[in-house]
């Protein structure tokens, strides 16, 4: 727990140094020219001297860079909320989107329903369909010598998986794939007008998904949207606008991270041919490799909480309504928790402490599906290739994600 027991907010509030601190600018989240290593280098330099960094971008925000700082914020629902600002920059233009935008106890009404759809028996039943999607998309790519594994696979795969997971018609899946792909790109380049208009379209698609289920055509036991419509909270159904927001959040939240994360595994493996060969020879070690990739290349750095009241955290005065970005990308390399944190260590002894999927109330319900998607991608790609290498410098996503947008590969078929 990093909250400062020695200094109360009242003591710090009258301290001019605390006020001056709020005007400092430790780092610039939108600095151009990011490379595959630059953000991690900057976080490694900042972490020891300001684990809770300050930036004046986006109207001013705190950035929790240290592992303890991130963990303290996400596990302290008494002092920090997601209901005000839950991302830096604030990108939600319309409506409340459960579960992320709600605090307990209301939050649990949605999570109870969602969680059931990610339990192990359901994941096992879904796996053959997810594998079939991966094979269908990868096979034509592997016939080409050069591909962009982000643009031609990572940006497409999640939408097809979602069609399977959400029982969607092929045409709906095609549209989600197209709209969300452009939406993810627009978020990454901070194109507010496009994000706003595509967000509206994604709401319409979410509504169409709901409408298709209102006649009872889908069994709530087998369909997440139907289950949300059938759920009860405080004696009545979940409010219609909230169910809409929830479906809208699910179809997009789960698209973004896999889209930017997948390419990072390929960059790493290109630069480490021995690991490539090891995983080809011993595919049972792929889940452990995926886990270490998730730690090393955590894709979220702009998810956020807002302080409910003045609070002192790591010696800094965080004012009521200040947003704090949860820089999972940095926290998971904190040397205090992960020795040699910048290196890939297969079977790292404390790998279960990584927080790539968050922790506590809002921890990622989709983690089992995300892990499966990454494992199946590597299993199928490695089995069908004898080697691959990156041919150009990867193009990077920008804050609020960390990861790749373009990874050109040369592949030697297996
Ligand atoms: C590599 C893949 C993924 C990563 C790294 C990831 C990471 C995360 C993280 C860190 C959070 C917590 C955010 C916070 O603390 O504010 C989160 C929440 C969430 N994720 Fe994921 N996620 C991934 C894939 C998915 C998938 C595939 C789905 C859905 C199918 C999904 C659905 C969600 C939802 C609905 C929430 C909000 C949970 C809540 O507020 O209770 N995610 N994710």
Automatic annotation (TrEMBL):
Tagged with keyword Phosphoprotein: no
Feature: compositional bias, Basic and acidic residues: 1-10, 18-31
Keywords: Heme, Iron, Metal-binding, Monooxygenase, Oxidoreductase
Molecular function per GO: heme binding; iron ion binding; monooxygenase activity; oxidoreductase activity, acting on paired donors, with incorporation or reduction of molecular oxygen
UniProt cross-references to InterPro entries, sorted A to Z: Cyt_P450 (IPR001128), Cyt_P450_B (IPR002397), Cyt_P450_CS (IPR017972), Cyt_P450_sf (IPR036396)
Disordered: region residues: 1-31
Short name of any one Pfam family annotated for the protein: p450
Domain of life: Bacteria
Family: Belongs to the cytochrome P450 family.
Name recorded for this polypeptide: Cytochrome P450
């Amino acid at each position: 727990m990093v909250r400062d027991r020695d200094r109360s907010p009242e003591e710090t509030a009258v301290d001019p140094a605390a006020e001056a601190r709020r005007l400092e600018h430790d780092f610039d989240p939108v600095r151009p020219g990011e490379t595959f290593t630059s953000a991690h280098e900057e976080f490694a330099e900042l972490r020891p001297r300001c684990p809770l960094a300050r930036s004046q971008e986006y109207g001013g925000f705190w950035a929790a860079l240290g592992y303890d700082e991130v963990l303290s914020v996400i596990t302290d629902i008494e002092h920090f909320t997601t209901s005000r600002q839950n991302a830096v920059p604030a990108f939600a233009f319309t409506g409340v989107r459960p579960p992320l935008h709600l605090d307990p106890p209301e939050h649990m009404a949605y999570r109870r329903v969602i969680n059931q759809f990610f339990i192990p028996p359901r994941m096992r039943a879904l796996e053959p369909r997810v594998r079939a999607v991966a094979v269908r998309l990868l096979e034509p790519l592997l016939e080409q010598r050069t591909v962009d594994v982000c643009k031609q696979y990572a940006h497409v795969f999640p939408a097809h998986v979602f069609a399977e997971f959400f029982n969607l018609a092929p045409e709906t899946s095609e549209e989600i794939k197209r709209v969300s792909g452009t939406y993810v790109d627009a978020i990454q380049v901070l194109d507010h007008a496009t994000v706003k208009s595509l967000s509206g379209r994604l709401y319409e698609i979410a509504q169409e998904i709901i409408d298709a289920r209102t006649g009872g055509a889908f069994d709530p036991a087998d369909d997440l949207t139907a289950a949300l419509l059938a759920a009860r909270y405080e004696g009545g159904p979940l409010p219609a606008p909230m169910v809409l927001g929830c479906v809208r959040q699910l179809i997009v939240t789960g698209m973004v991270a896999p889209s930017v994360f997948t390419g990072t595994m390929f960059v790493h493996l290109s630069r480490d041919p021995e690991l490539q060969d090891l995983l080809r020879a011993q595919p049972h070690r792929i889940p452990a490799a995926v886990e270490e990739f998730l730690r090393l290349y955590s894709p979220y750095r702009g998810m956020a909480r807002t302080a409910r009241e003045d609070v002192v955290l790591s010696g800094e005065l965080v004012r009521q309504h200040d947003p704090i970005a949860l820089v999972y990308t940095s926290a998971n390399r904190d040397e205090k928790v992960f020795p040699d944190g910048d290196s890939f260590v297969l079977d790292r002894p404390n790998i279960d402490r990584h927080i790539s999927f968050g922790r506590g109330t809002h921890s990622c319900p989709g983690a089992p599906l995300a892990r499966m998607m990454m494992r199946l991608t590597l299993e199928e790609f490695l089995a069908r290739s004898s080697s691959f290498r990156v041919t150009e410098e990867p193009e990077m996503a920008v804050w609020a994600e960390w990861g790749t947008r373009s990874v050109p590969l040369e592949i030697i078929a297996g």
